[in-house]
Amino acid sequence: MIRKLAYALPFVLAVSSAFAEDSYVDMAPEDILQALIDKTGSAYLNQSPQNQQMMPDNPAYWVADEGEELFRTPRGPNDVSLESCDFGKGPGVLKGAYAELPRYFEDTGKVMDLETRLVHCMTTLQGIPADNPSVKKRHGSKSDMMKLQTYIALQSNGVKWNPPMDHPMEKAMRDAGEVLFYRKAGPMDFSCQTCHGSTGLRIRASTLPNVNIPEEWTKAISWPAERAGHQNVRSTQHRVRGCLWQMRHPGIIAGSDASIALISFWTDAARGQPAIIPDLKR
Amino acid sequence: MKAKLKTFAATIALLVSGVAVVNADEVKPHKYTMMSPAELAEYLIFVDKGYKLSQPVQEGGVAGQRMFQDDLQKTCSKLRGERATGDVAAKISAAARKTIKYPEGGIKLGDWRIGRELAWSGFGYRVGHKNDNHSKAQYGPGGNCYNCHQLADDRVGGTLGPSLLNYGKLRGNSEAILKYTYEVIYNPHSVFACTNMPRIGAKGILTQEQISHVMAYLLDPESPVNK
Fold first, then answer.
1. Residue B155 and which of A88, A101, A176, B125 are 20 to 30 A apart at CA?
2. Is the CB of B205 inside 8 Å of chain A's CB atoms?
């Protein structure tokens, strides 16, 4: 009897996990995307079957592999690896850590996103000077920053966005980010809402994601992602910069509290939906 | 020796308690948490300087100016993309009408071919990185029309705004239509309070002459918009 149960157990577990509602942790990013398309029929999610087809061969996987090596290699004047860097779930714990960023860190007294936390560990733990290209160069698949970010974020594929809101600073930054998101300014009177407040509408040929639909919004914020048109893996901070550039707002300073406030709000807006990493965008 | 040890221990105790005091200070609510979300947002822009505020911009001056909100931007931000209604809408539209400057000699249609280029182009006024220099561009900074509107069907336009295909064919080009079209382009809040559409004339995105070309693109019977 017990033996029979033991044989049956893996099968029961497999069936129950397949039917467990909304579990995406063991799914490939393209399958997560397909599940969300099936669930919502969203024109935004479904706008590029070509990109979806290419996702299994996403160049971002190579970038992440190089990131893993960088992550595990002792580097900098202090000759230590990043394995002792705490991304919020304890030193070296990466599984699901990115899905819970930005968060408040006691050691810096600041709310930090993935990029600022990584910069913090590289400059303090490893002792790499802030003007060293390894820290300073933030964009492009060949940069250490994007290799590392892609590797770290990859460990949260399928994990539901769950940025903590327990600390008053986390709440304050999220709420200020919401104000910034809806704040019209500049020669064109644009705010983030101008493009991201409705569903299924397009800027030229591009269908836009709606901040109010978490199933759409999770893809919008799933960075790093390979941008087919750029032939580079791009970061969250790169997306913020690009949006503000299109909005004709002043350039945002990477890692500024303004940038992190925006990222806190937009991550909260995708709460409960699975991260799709690495994504492949147009 | 014993005394020395005692002193040493006391020093350590002091140091430790000193550290404890510092920690207690840190537990004090951070200034961010003492502000309202709106106050913190302003603080992050203008005091913490999270943006490149001192960068020169195409319209003259520095980028920081662009982050100061006028009354319309303040009012409409609070509506989060919804149109204003009732008294608020009436007030906004009345103020918007006052900003409209009409061309001397009346509203006339320019060249739809130039209008087509202006309606398609949308690169002007970007800053932060890859700053544009549209003073050297043949047709100026561009009107960004196609970003949000379908116009002629030979190019793909956006859908954030309504389709303007056959705009003139459907409306004709009477004085009243010319005036209405000019006003909506110059300051759309005069008609649609808290619309997402930019104030193309009132904010100096396009000149009166450039607007006349865009209007020709919309209204000239020969324009592809109306073919």
1. B125
2. yes
